[in-house]
Design a protein that fits this description.
alpha/beta, about 20% strand, 2 domains, 9-stranded parallel beta sheet, TIM Barrel
Length: about 375
């Protein structure tokens, strides 16, 4: 196969694996920082690597608009263009196109849409999405699908899922197999088990190097998402990686890992870094809060990121109040490092047969919250 995936250990539904690509190994469970336009916002690629990230996500839609896939290919592919020599997964562009309400027209052939940048008309089909991702030189290409909105009726979700499965076949046929590269199919079906089963069956018939679970974290809430994840990963091949798209919060990730998911991506750690929110083992912290103004402590005791090693909460609070870009840089670095530490902890817990203890401590700490120091 183009991509090699080995499962090193399992505990219940949870898996500890290793994905081999042309540009390196990805240890799973894994979290992928999002590099929408060929960059993780407020971070240099070297800094992202220093957080422990082994793979990034690039965005086909944004890169096809600016600077264009042809230019990226001419520059040697996305790895060289952005100076990232580790694996890259690119989404298909479908999610962004589907969100362009009033700017796109959907048909069996694909999607015609107008750029949100300059209004220029584009057409994205499964074949064209594969062509663009090939030019970007992404290690993991995602099949083009329609992300079913929530809520949707059974019939709406069925129609959407079945078209996505037809697009999955066309995507697989158009994908060019080569060593160290692969294509993932995307399971759809909204919150309906019957449709998820049908989608998984069709994807297995086509045959992919990995399988994603799409159409979740789109407004259905964590309880409903976990209800779907209680069965949906198990419908997919056991010997292939499973990727939950667009998720999510730390407690979403831990819950999904316990249900058999291997890979994740989300803009939350970077977006939160730009809005003064930091993730810690005791839950989120809003550094703009006035209680941090005279706090000499690090953001999180025990964290080895530059923010926590070198700066106080009081200083980051000051930077935020002054709208200094350094605050965004440091908070983003911390958040990505927090997510990577979380994944490292999950992998180690699986290896040492301590997963239940790890999960129990995680949820207990999150419930405790970031308790302010009591003034003496």
């Amino acid at each position: 196969m183009a991509l090699k995936f080995e499962i090193l250990k399992t505990i219940g539904k949870t898996r500890r694996g290793r994905l081999h690509t042309r540009h390196g190994i990805v240890n799973t469970p894994a979290f992928m920082p999002v590099g929408t336009c060929g960059t993780v916002k407020a971070m240099m690629p070297e800094s992202v690597a220093a957080t422990g990230a082994e793979i990034l996500l690039g965005n086909t839609y944004h890169l096809m608009l600016r600077p264009g896939a042809d230019l990226v290919e001419k520059m040697g592919g996305l790895h060289k263009f952005m100076n990232w020599d580790k694996p890259i997964l690119t989404d298909s562009g479908g999610f962004q196109v589907m969100s362009l309400t009033g700017l796109r027209k959907l048909s069996e052939e694909g999607v015609t849409f107008r750029s949100h940048v300059d209004g220029k008309k584009f057409f994205l089909s499964p074949e064209e999405s594969m062509n663009i991702q090939h030019k970007l030189d992404s290690n993991i290409t995602m099949a083009l699908d329609e992300c079913t909105p929530f809520p949707a009726t059974f019939e709406q979700a069925k129609k959407s899922m079945q078209m996505s499965m037809r697009w999955a076949r066309r995507s697989r046929d158009a994908f060019i197999d080569r060593d160290g590269y692969g294509i993932f199919g995307i399971q759809q079906g909204s919150v309906f088990k019957e449709l998820r089963e049908e989608s998984a069956e069709k994807l297995r018939e086509i045959g992919f190097d990995g399988y994603a679970i799409g159409g979740l974290a789109v407004g259905e809430g964590q309880e409903k998402m976990f209800e779907v994840l209680d069965y949906s990963p198990g419908l997919l091949p056991e010997d292939k990686p499973r990727y939950l798209m667009g998720v999510g919060r730390p407690d979403d990730i831990v819950g999904a890992v316990l249900r058999g998911v291997d890979m994740f991506d989300c803009v939350m750690p970077t977006r939160s870094g730009r809005t003064a929110q930091a993730f810690t083992r005791f839950g989120p912290v809003n550094i703009r809060n006035s209680r941090h103004r005279e706090d000499p402590r690090p953001l999180e005791e025990g964290c080895d990121c530059p923010l926590c090693r070198n700066y106080t909460r009081a200083y980051i609070h000051h930077l935020q109040k002054c709208n200094e870009v350094l605050a965004v840089m440091l908070l983003t670095w911390h958040n990505i490092r927090y997510y990577q530490r979380l994944m490292q902890g999950l992998r180690q817990a699986i290896e040492t047969d301590s997963l239940q203890e790890f999960a129990a401590e995680f949820y207990q700490n999150q419930a405790r919250g970031d308790i302010p120091e009591i003034s003496k």
